[in-house]
Structure prediction request, 515 residues.
Amino acid sequence: MPDDIAEVYRNTYPALVRFLYRKVWDQGRAEDLAQEAFARALVHRPDNTRGWLFVVAANMARDEARKAARERRHLTLLKSEPDATELDPEESIDAHTQAQQVRVALEQLTPRDREALLLWDAGMSYDEIATQTGLARGAIGTTLARARRRLVEAYDAGQEGGQHVARG
Amino acid sequence: MSHVDEGTLHAYLDGELPSPERAALESHLAQCATCRAQLAEERALLERSAALLGSARPVERAVPPFEQVRRATRRPWYVRTEFAWAASLVLAVGLGYYLADAIAPREAPANRGPAAVASTVSESVPTDPLVIARQENAPAQKSTARRPSAPPPLEEKAQLSQADAYRRDSDVMGYAAQPPAVSLRGAAPLPFDTVRRSNAREEVPIADAQAGVVEISPRAGAAAAPNANRADSRSVRNLVSTSWPVISRGKAASLLGDRPVGVPGLVTRGIRSSPKGDTVVVEQALDSRTVIQIFQHPANTETDALGARERADRVLARYVGRLRVEISGPVSTDSLNKLLEQVEPLP
Prediction:
């Protein structure tokens, strides 16, 4: 029923945008993709809307990445329509720098560890993560522990490396 | 009980340890200082990791009304353009009917199938970079459920009145005069199509459908000029440095004698060269609506690409390897400086 999806929408939309953002690293696109996922859910009416949304979102993000790789070869379009609700770009510079460092750290995780971590951060339970990733439920704690450790270590290593470069 | 593994500790901290195990763990922790210390360590790690992820989150914005999604008013642009693409084919097929009836019923090539449509469409290579970009993206939502297009419904036939203006254009006729059994290559799977159709009438401005025609068959441009102008003024408004031809990365590298540079992590939207080929500009998106330009040329050559300076309010420069690099964009000098510091050869 649409009303059920509307409820899921209210509860899940921000988490889905966050999840997508860590994959496409562009807020506008993350929002577009999240809305597209919900629009598809309205058509498909999956049984487990929430889980379904994250699967579809992950697939769309992957397609986006492939498309972006293709676009790098020819694309010249500048999509820069003014938008009154858009943030001042100034504010996004520092955030971008920080996000960039986290992004680099995240990319050093294995895809499975990263997925588990992003799903947990999006508010999924261990059971849901197990369903989503195909991992045994009992392995989720270990997976998350490893993912968190690697994220922190990779980030710190990046910080040290960055300082050397800056000072060198 | 032996010492607890980190996975169990994380499950415990996450509140995901089933209650029998939790009770056992807690009683163990009460007696085992090692595991308590380990728990504190894991907690710190968990909080640190959450903080890092939290620092890389999108800006919290109000959740758009669900009604907006239901009506799909904010479709990603590639879906909208895909509609335009499909609409242009619908219009073209419809036009084919019209022309077949009105002009040359016997000359309609009866054996031209979908492949002919595809090849004709792909042969009409657009010159406008905007068009290339749109076509590039149009098939992103590939059709898995192709369906033969039945004779166009009434509302599509109604669009034929707009097609009168194009009637004499031979290019349009060339690929419009198709038999009824062509597949709509650009049509989305059925359920979506249904949604789109229901939305189309209320929300997609007719200009979009017309723009679709203009984009997909640029050679029809002369006949469609009034509409083309309208579409162009809307969509080309934000296109920067259109007079600089688009080049590939490889071409940029050969012009520069080095890899082109940019800000790592930003999406590269395009690479162009100055008309003389002595300067390259890499255009990158800060977000989906803010684009910065990174001009670069070999440091040992003079360039008259001062258009860059004229165009930009603020230009900052530095040397990266053997390249002199200038940056400009609609953000503050401070921010441009920060971005310029990050510039390095693109992968």
Residues 73-77, 107-240, 306-314 of chain B have pLDDT under 50 and may be disordered.
